Amino acid sequence: MEKKDFEAWLDNISVTFLSLTDLQKNETLDHLISLSGAVQLRHLSNNLEILLKRDFLKLLPLELSFYLLKWLDPQTLLTCCLVSKQWNKVISACTEVWQTACKNLGWQIDDSVQDPLHWKKVYLKAILRMKQLKDHEAFETSSLIGHSARVYALYYKDGLLCTGSDDLSAKLWDVSTGQCIYGIQTHTCAAVKFDEQKLVTGSFDNTVACWEWSSGAKTQHFRGHTGAVFSVDYNDELDILVSGSADFTVKVWALSTGTCLNTLTGHTEWVTKVVLQKCKVKSLMHSPGDYILLSADKYEIKIWPIGREINCKCLKTLSVSEDRSISLQPRLHFDGKYIVCSSALGLYQWDFASYDILRVIKPPDFSNVSLLGFGEIFALLFDNRYLYIMDLRTEKLISRWPLPEYRKSKRGSSFLAGEMSWLNGLNGQNDMGLVFATSMPDHSIHLVLWKEHG
């Protein structure tokens, strides 16, 4: 058949074919296939494979593609990125998918970031860090050497670690370099807290002192306790210093003059922790912005209003056991919204607005586990052998890190958490620096630090 005649025939057949019903079209195709030889069947097979492939990501509007992708898990999406450049481009730009994946890993989300390709990169970074935590490869260790006697007091802030020792000295260390920035002569230190200019120390000699870093001079001495001072806190805005002592009292001092403004009584055990913090919630007893003092002994946590009212009365006393069979551990957490403390019964979280217990977390073998830090997403815990990270959303331990035989002290502050912001969610910048510090029997300080990202 001539080409011209064939084309006319083909046009005529096509018009007729399009006018048929679907059933008639199928019967026509079946008949043509039955008449075909091997060459025609091979040709038909090759073309059908191409015709049946439909790149839905390429054909669909972008909004519909994003909607479909939301139903896939991140690992499947990463595999799909390998299909083609087009798929990789579309999947990488699906912001909501990657933000959700990051949140599920405990990652902080900054909604102000506009780059559509940003969050896939963040997820890849997050999945690597979480794998390092799971495989016990996220941390590294180092030591600070310089004291010649027991190191009892530790305090960390902004990359700097302060250590107070029985060698009658306090030292300020740059954690990133391991260098000692300041070293001054003091009394024996049971508690320390510092800022850029000054150091405040609580001592086994029953006093509190304020020192100047640059000169080492004692600028104020606070005398009045009749037992060792285990905890101190202060606020420059209020010009107030508070101290908790083995004499069962909390004292409120004028920071600038050293005058004792009030002695808070009611504790029946050593006061091992005092925390001065702004309230962030409203209740019948306090408003946001009010300064609150928490003091804790072996069995109870007492809540006091401070602010400008010096002659304050206890607002509330919290405990976990009425018969005092269970003791509290001295590492108390208070962020203005929640109070958290651990005991042999578990980890207790109180709502500060109502003073109600929100939950009690009981990991396996919790009787020996102590609280170091508590956030919105993670908690940092430890026992005699390991440092633990708990995902508070599932209350499961997701990582652990071996610890050496550190110097144990039930009432002291000879171990502490470092950077704390990552407990509210990692973000790729806050997982660096100090994680944990503890004093050792050889008078050194053992540090656990974040490793840099792989």
Question: Which terms would index this structure?
Answer:
454 residues, Monooxygenase, 4-stranded antiparallel β-sheet, Methylamine Dehydrogenase, Chain H, 9 helices, ubl conjugation pathway, alpha+beta, WD40_repeat_dom_sf
Task: Characterise the protein shown here.
With 454 residues, this protein is an alpha+beta fold. The chain folds into two domains: 56-133, Up-down Bundle (Monooxygenase); 137-448, YVTN repeat-like/Quinoprotein amine dehydrogenase (Methylamine Dehydrogenase, Chain H), CATH 2.130.10.10. The protein is built from nine helices and 28 strands. The protein has helices at residues 3-18, 22-35, 38-52, 56-59, 62-69, 74-80, 85-92, 95-104, 118-134, and strands spanning 139-144, 151-157, 160-165, 169-174, 179-185, 189-194, 198-203, 208-212, 218-222, 229-235, 240-245, 250-254, 260-264, 273-278, 291-296, 301-305, 316-318, 333-334, 338-343, 346-351, 357-361, 370-374, 378-382, 386-391, 396-402, 415-417, 434-439, 445-450. The chain has a four-stranded antiparallel sheet, with no helix packed on it. It has a four-stranded antiparallel sheet with strand order 2-3-4-5, with no helix packed on it. Helix 8 packs parallel to helix 9. The longest helix has 17 residues, at 118-134. The protein is elongated. The model has no long low-confidence stretch (mean pLDDT 89).
Q: Helix coverage percent of residues?
A: 10-25%
Biggest beta sheet attributes: 4 strands, antiparallel
Spatial sequence of strands, sheet with the most strands: 1-28-27-26
Q: How far is it from the N-terminal to the C-terminal residue, by CA? A: 70 Å
CATH class annotation of the largest domain: Mainly Beta
- Assigned CATH superfamily of the largest domain: YVTN repeat-like/Quinoprotein amine dehydrogenase
Under CATH, the topology of the largest domain can be stated as Methylamine Dehydrogenase, Chain H
The secondary structure category is alpha+beta
What's the number of domains? 2
Pfam families: F-box-like, WD40
Domain F-box: 54-101
Protein name: F-box/WD repeat-containing protein 2
Keywords: Acetylation, Repeat, Ubl conjugation pathway, WD repeat
